């Protein structure tokens, strides 16, 4: 834990924001997933309950249809940062990411807080930091904030946090802890179960099937490891779904996916070996040629734009790192 043990972070954050002029924005990581959007929405509504107004912003795209449906059905007011004219006086709270990470755009404004559950490098100029890599989701952290502040979440907030928690733990099978279970138990009675179940069940669409075909056609398997390079690209959030799909095979324990997206190589790793750490392997692989990080069970990264595509070399290097 990076937060101060003797203090309640949500108290510190709310106190620092009250009665001060200037806009506040909650920034998710780029190409946000359900956990990032849910955590940002939950935090926005909690601050609103305390008389503090904040907007939700992101960089990249909202790529998954299920996420767009979640945003629409729950009326989540999230906008691309270009929707606003950001200024240096704007205050930014980064959620489900950390300043300096490859997947967090450095926007105009002052980053004042980081709320994250990834293994992250913190920066000295961010005063308020709550990083809990032992948690399965950022939604769990926001749920605890509600309990600390004795604020009952609305059905929309509870449903969003439920979905975020479920998605980031792969339906409660990946990195699930007692804190996440406690959050699920708390959120369950307040959530719209029908809506939650519908969004969780319908996570892929017909247009995704072509990516599944390309993945299965080009998959290379070796001693419990699976590798694939998609030269025609793949939406970043779909890469994680594809990785989870391959990891569900009984013979596969580590998945490494690469995709050429906008002249840049995107990476997505999935792991269920107890003695391996996807985040450590990602950082070792991208050292000197890109950036990446994540969790023991899953990690993401990018290679620098001047790195040529060389899947055979990548796979050989990863075999050595994983072994």
UniProtKB/TrEMBL annotation:
It comes from the Bacteria. Residues 23-164 form the DDH domain. Residues 226-304 form the DHHA1 domain. InterPro entries: DDH_dom, DHH_sf, DHHA1_dom, Oligoribo/pAp-PDE_c-di-AMP_PDE. One of its GO terms (molecular function) is nucleic acid binding. Pfam families: DHH, DHHA1. This is Recombinase RecJ. It comes from Oceanispirochaeta crateris.
């Amino acid at each position: 834990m990076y937060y101060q043990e003797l203090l309640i972070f949500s108290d510190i954050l709310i106190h620092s924001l009250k009665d001060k002029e200037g806009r506040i924005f909650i920034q998710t990581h780029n190409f946000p997933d359900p956990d990032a959007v849910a955590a940002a929405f939950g935090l926005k509504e909690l601050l609103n309950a305390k008389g503090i107004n904040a907007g939700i912003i992101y960089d990249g795209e909202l790529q998954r249809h299920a996420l767009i449906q979640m945003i629409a059905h729950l009326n989540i007011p999230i906008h691309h940062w270009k929707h606003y004219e950001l200024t240096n006086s704007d205050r930014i709270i980064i959620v489900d990411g950390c300043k300096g990470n490859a997947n967090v755009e450095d926007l105009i404004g002052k980053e004042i807080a980081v709320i994250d559950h990834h293994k992250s490098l913190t920066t000295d100029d961010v005063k308020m930091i709550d990083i809990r890599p032992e948690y399965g989701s950022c939604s769990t952290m926001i749920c605890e904030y509600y309990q600390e502040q004795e604020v009952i979440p609305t059905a929309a907030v509870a449903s969003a946090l439920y979905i975020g928690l479920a998605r980031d733990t792969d339906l409660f099978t990946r990195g699930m802890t007692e804190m996440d279970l406690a959050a699920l138990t708390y959120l369950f009675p307040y959530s719209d179960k029908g809506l939650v179940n519908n969004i969780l069940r319908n996570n892929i669409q017909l247009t995704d099937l072509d990516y599944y075909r390309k993945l299965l056609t080009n998959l290379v398997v070796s001693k419990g490891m699976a590798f694939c390079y998609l030269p025609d690209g793949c939406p970043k959030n779909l890469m994680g779904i594809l990785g989870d799909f391959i990891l569900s095979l009984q013979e596969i324990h580590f998945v490494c996916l690469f995709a050429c997206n906008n002249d840049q190589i995107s990476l997505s790793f999935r792991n269920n070996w107890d003695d391996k750490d996807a985040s450590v392997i990602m950082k070792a692989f991208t050292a000197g040629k890109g950036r990446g990080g994540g969790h023991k069970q899953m990690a993401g990264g990018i290679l620098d734009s001047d790195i040529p595509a060389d899947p055979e070399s990548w796979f050989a290097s990863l075999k050595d790192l994983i072994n």
